Amino acid sequence: MSAYDELMAFQRDTHALAEVTGRLGWDQETVMPRGAAEQRAEEMGVLSAMLHDRRTDPRVGDWLAAAEPADDMQAAQLREIRRGFDKARMVPGKLASEIARVTSTAQGVWAEARATDDPKPFLPILDRVVALKRDEAQALADGGDPYDALLDDYEPGATAATLSAMFDALRPRLVALRDAAMDSAVQPAALTGRFDPEAQFHLSRELAGAFGYDFTRGRIDRAVHPFSSGSGDDVRITTRTVETDPFNCLYSTIHEVGHATYEQNIDRAYLMTPLGGGVSMGVHESQSRIYENQLGRSRPFTGWLHGRMAEVFGDPGLDADAFYGAVNRLHRGFIRTEADEVQYNLHVLLRFDLERALIAGDLAVGDLEGAWNDRFAADFGYPVDRPSNGFLQDVHWSVGLFGYFATYTLGNVYAGCLNAAMRAAVPDLDDHLAQGDTAPATTWLRENVQRHGGLYAPRELITRACGTAPSEAPLLDYLETKFGALYAL
């Protein structure tokens, strides 16, 4: 075989091992018995060490030096392998294994702390996670900004400085829109009542299918924190049910289906290769957010959903227009994943700033809860009532995902750009959505974004799809138009 062929065969085996590791993570959050946490931590540590050994194998460097790409696809494969190889060699194997072991344990400790609203047992192990991630960041930064080194794992090419500039442009218009809507004399009513959790779950499966999720290569389970896991022919999602809030289940499902169909729709020629997954978490989030919000919360689609809700649960007590208002109403709340479209990004910016301070050493873990509560009160105007509604609500820091939160807002920005381009390309889209038919939208996204996998860099991919470079302007224009109409501003 050629050097390229040998390298790709080696990478395929490495990818398979990584997928097995990911499946253990899915198992841990869904069906693993609580008593297995310590053993699972050891298993994850061993697998992480094996993966690190493969990713730093000297033969990879030899193959990269000798390989000659035959086309743009092979050049992209080599680019991604070289990027991963260079980064893996910068992190000592012992550190990679220890991060995997400690974060696996920390996830269980976090879950217990969140359930009991007692952060004290969690703080020592979170302190250990932060210390380990600082060490990793220093190793990867090679003299540069440590936080940028962590951010690059999730959004290649992005920097904290460029994202801060974008976020600073978002904040004033988001706050102004939020304040104007909250002060308006027009206030949409909330959906009230009790909705059978099993019926919610069955309707969520119907919605997953309506948005193109392939159940022959996936499944839906329940979890405390909804997520999507896997790639290629095994892509799984989770959701959760709350008896008094069916939107929590239905829109969490649509959101995770956006992630999952991205993975399912990547060109099969890239299966089990470095190009066979989403190119970045920002682009990934753009798919979940455009499915959930610009499509799923649109007036045409909610009109169709209103009918299905009436068939499944009985008269919801709201007509179709009021139901649309209930789906999109701005509301006070503590939980990022339950936030409305206008305030969601304010939740993200809070986390972005705090985790940068943690990695820089400007904020101690012991002071994190107080810093969170102070910032939340300043941004939202009311105090956090308990830790599970504050700094304990997200799993991300317990599992070491520092640098991840910024991609949620970046994904919203990308989604705003994609929505504008998609609407221009599919002018009769609303007619289809009113019938519960998302195919024109999901087909456009598959062809312009999803099928490419990791072939293009994130900003290049969005620019190719939209015809212009990413900007926060389309998202802000969309939000101001939509909520200006809803609240008669």
Describe it for me?
Helix content is 64%, strand content 3%. The protein has 489 residues and is mainly α. The chain has 2 domains: 3-144, no CATH class; 160-486, Orthogonal Bundle (Neurolysin, domain 3), CATH 1.10.1370. The chain has a 3-stranded mixed beta sheet with strand order 1-3-2, with helices on both faces. Strand 2 (228-231) and strand 3 (234-239) form a beta hairpin. The radius of gyration is 22 Å and the shape is globular. The termini are far apart. The mean pLDDT is 96.
Attribute tags:
single chain, 489 residues, mainly alpha, Neurolysin, domain 3, 3-stranded mixed beta sheet, 3 strands, globular, carboxypeptidase, hydrolase, Peptidase_M32_Taq, metallocarboxypeptidase activity, Metal-dependent carboxypeptidase
Task: List strands and helices in order, with pairings.
Elements: H1 3-30, H2 37-55, H3 58-66, H4 72-90, H5 93-116, H6 123-141, H7 146-151, H8 160-183, H9 197-210, E1 220-222, E2 228-231, E3 234-239, H10 246-264, H11 281-295, H12 299-313, H13 320-328, H14 341-360, H15 368-380, H16 406-425, H17 429-433, H18 439-448, H19 458-466, H20 473-486
